[in-house]
Amino acid sequence: MMYSLEAGGKRLRPILVLSAAEAVGRNARAREIAMPIACAIEMIHTYSLIHDDLPAMDNDDYRRGKLTNHKVFGEAMAILAGDGLLTHAFHAITRASALGASPETALAIVADLAKLAGAQGMVGGQAADMLGEQGVTSLEELEYIHLHKTSDLLVFSVIAGARIGGATQRQLDALLVFARKLGLAFQIQDDILDLVGDAAKLGKPVQSDVTGQKVTYPFLIGMEKSEALVVRLTQEAKQALDDARLAMPDTMHAIADYLMSRDH
Amino acid sequence: MMYSLEAGGKRLRPILVLSAAEAVGRNARAREIAMPIACAIEMIHTYSLIHDDLPAMDNDDYRRGKLTNHKVFGEAMAILAGDGLLTHAFHAITRASALGASPETALAIVADLAKLAGAQGMVGGQAADMLGEQGVTSLEELEYIHLHKTSDLLVFSVIAGARIGGATQRQLDALLVFARKLGLAFQIQDDILDLVGDAAKLGKPVQSDVTGQKVTYPFLIGMEKSEALVVRLTQEAKQALDDARLAMPDTMHAIADYLMSRDH
């Protein structure tokens, strides 16, 4: 569990939790209270990578420039490490309550995570991705996969942080649109970087999607339209962010800009 | 997810949740409110069986008389089905709150489950079991494995039900002792049945532990002492149950008697 948690990565999801909590601006201790939630979502993200890398799934040997979990500890331990991280994420959320979140808020965050990381969310996206590899994937199917495999955890991060920060329902609604579009842009950018990126910066071989015959946005609509779509989705995400009328939106805007222009 | 949930089994853990909730006798709607918790623990139990049966773990072809999940849907889907069930269990717990459990009680149950099913609980027991198969296992190590692989989910079931039923801290303490001893007796009985049981009743081949070179109580201390230990642990469990001074303890006593005398 610690090997994969400590393997690094962008820590995008925890940063979104903490940034959203602060951006709302209605709780002076928002960042402190949101910290266990930030840890929880990184545990969920990390467990999903460990299981995704398994031989029965994507069969990857490297992740973040290090050997994948099962390459070091074996398949059985990798499965259990993923199970342990997934389970412990829910324990971390209960700790936000001990730090000052109301039991109602903590329980709403538990329900959000169970839905967005589960069979109707991330796990559902993973399952659709697995099934998609067995045949032709349409653009609609690919969008479904990206929305659930990637956007759902970003949605959770932003909404959970905003809940801790004291957001209104109208703000939560706008932030949901922001996170969904940001997640889709993020995943299409991932598809693009896998084709043209620098293996050293990515920490994994490029064109792994091509050799694995994975259907991607560039494969379906071409590189030029994919790049244009990333720009458009990011603009729409930033518009939704403006609609949320947060007290301190600058960090959230900066994150959206960074994700669009990143090279790894 | 549904294939394995609907494969049957004793439903021991959900029965313990509902029985404990009713036995305390301080909440007329205890059974109704406890129902989503009963479903949650069966989802956890079922996910653990799906992952435990995988080729990288115990590599079992049959479970409850049916083909194991990965034999029907493949390894990738079996891993995801387990992940989905584990995640959805936490969603089920939040539903107890909608039915009338206080947010504090629901959150305490989330924390219990995350601890008892996680790396310090069931997953930790599974990991110790995997490591144990690579070398000699002592009686202390075997007790650790049994307490965490099996007792921890029974402890969760009894404690969660009792929380919904309105148990005092003193009652929870006594029920913890009851469930730990019951779980250990249950697992030793499992070891015994694997050696001498009827394959048709068990729904899986007997002596699978022997062919898999698994260290068991009968292997370490002999059949006679193992059988005596099941009787003693069950008596101690029932004593702890008396100590809990439940309003309606009869069903709980009957469950303890049944588990000791079962043949599958």
From TrEMBL, chains A, B:
One of its GO terms (biological process) is terpenoid biosynthetic process. It is an enzyme of class 2 (transferase). The keyword Metal-binding applies. Belongs to the FPP/GGPP synthase family. Pfam families: polyprenyl_synt. This is Farnesyl diphosphate synthase. It catalyses: isopentenyl diphosphate + (2E)-geranyl diphosphate = (2E,6E)-farnesyl diphosphate + diphosphate. Its cofactor is Mg(2+). InterPro entries: Isoprenoid_synthase_dom_sf, Polyprenyl_synt, Polyprenyl_synt_CS, Prenyl_diphosphate_synthase. Transmembrane segments: none annotated.
